[in-house]
Amino acid sequence: QVSLVESGGGLVQAGGSLRLSCAASGRTFSSNAMAWFRQAPGKEHEFVTGINWSGDSTYYADSVKGRFTISRDNAKNTMYLQMNNLKPEDTAVYYCAAAPRRYITGGRGDYNHWGQGTQVTVSS
Question: Cα separation of 28 and 113, whole Å?
């Protein structure tokens, strides 16, 4: 069974940092673009950042540019999201996702494997 499992969420004060992980099992995603999305209460899923299959190309939403860093370790079948200088507006459930393509896409419908999500709460 193919699965993506996020971890690393939690409660942090504004200005703090968290590192999310997304571990894949059941198959390798080393040929797939992957991404982080988030959903805040009452809002739609928002694309946060994506990374191509090899890890040498990334893309960030303007809201997180300069604060978040996406990376992946294909040998470990794991993707990461380092989040620094967190703000209350970053509070959301964060989801990792994999797409059946090598290059980054920002469309939620382009991703066919999703994790269950991990809660990130930033207090002011």
Answer: 12
Section 60-84 average pLDDT: 97
Where does 1-124 show beta strands of DSSP type E?
A: 3-7, 10-13, 18-25, 34-39, 46-51, 58-60, 68-73, 78-83, 92-98, 113-114, 118-123
Cβ distance 99 to 106 under 8 Å?
no
Count of beta carbons in the 10 Å neighbourhood of residue 12: 17
* Count of alpha carbons within 13 angstroms of residue 27, beta-carbon side: 9
The mean of the pLDDT values for the chain is 96
Residues paired with residue 122 on neighbouring β-strands, in sequence order: 12
Residue 85 has pLDDT above 90, yes or no: yes
Model pLDDT, residue 102: 96
Average pLDDT of span 54-72: 98
Q: Could you say which DSSP state residue 101 is in?
A: S
